[in-house]
Amino acid sequence: MTQINSIFSTLKSALKAHGITYADLAKRMNLSEATIKRIFAEENLSICRLEQISQIMNMEISDIISLMNERQFRLKQLTEEQELEIARDPTLILVGVCALNRWKLEDITSRYNISEHQCIQKLAQLDRLRIIELLPNNRIKLLVSPNFQWRKNGPMQNVFRETIGREFFKNSFSKENEMLVVLNGTFSRNSSLEFHKKINKLAQEFENINVDDTGVPMKQKSGVTAVLAIRNWQFGAFESLQK
User: How far is residue 193's CA from residue 213's CA, in Å, rounded to a whole number?
Assistant: First the structure.
């Protein structure tokens, strides 16, 4: 994919995240909808119009470029030692998770009881670990791939697994933005592997939506955690009934 392809792909995602259609864009830019569709189909856009589209989304061209860069290939996984350093420090976990979710420094300090100085210290630590690059004015640039994952059975997964078991499922899952689905079946090995692939695709779609929402103001968003898991298991009460 060329940089031009990447810019237009990023623009489309950003427009979708802001709920702006081609028809809306045409009206705001005093152009016909057919012209807008042709611009995106031919991927031919002047800097002036790129700036105009960015401003319609309350963004700058630099924000679009940053979003595009985040989609490029980067680090997919940390080393065991890197994860262990993060897992030992709850505040570093907090700042790290926020950074990976594309929060700004002011978003973190306004939402959590952590000072700006302390937050900068933790961001500098993440910079040293090469998870982020701490830019001038404390801007955060991610250095990990969009499909970044914590190590399987690594220090961070162990932290989250303990938290999930203790806290996550102590909930009714009855609110509008909550859902709990428990499925039970009998799969062959091939069917199980096929379902694993579908879970991986769903996990990637979760991350795509997360990236698309980067330009949406923080006050319009809330933290979301999804747990996707599959294993050989049966309800404990059934064990006494087995032959």
Answer: 31
pLDDT digits (tens, 9 = 90+) for 180-202: 988 888 889 899 999 999 998 88
Long-range Cβ pairs for the range 26-29 (8 Å, 24+): 28/56, 29/53, 29/56
Please give the Cα distance from 64 to 157 (Å, whole number): 32
Specify whether the CB–CB gap between 165 and 90 falls below 8 A: no
* Cβ atoms within 10 Å, residue 139: 14
CATH number of the domain at 3-70, please?
1.10.260.40
Helices (H), the chain: 3-17, 22-29, 33-42, 47-56, 61-70, 80-87, 90-100, 105-111, 116-128, 155-163, 189-212
What pTM was computed for the model?
0.61
pLDDT in tens, 137-166: 999 988 887 667 889 899 999 998 888 778
CB 99 within 8 A of CB 142: yes
Residues near 159 by beta carbon (within 8 Å), at least 6 away in sequence: 87, 93
With CA atoms as reference, report the closest residue to 121 among 137, 97, 144, 138.
Answer: 138
Picking from 237, 229, 242, 240, the residue whose alpha carbon sits closest to that of residue 183 is: 229
Q: Which residues of 186-220 are buried (b: 16+ CB within 10 A; e: fewer)?
A: eeeeeeeeeeeeeeeeeeeeeeeeebbbbbeeeee
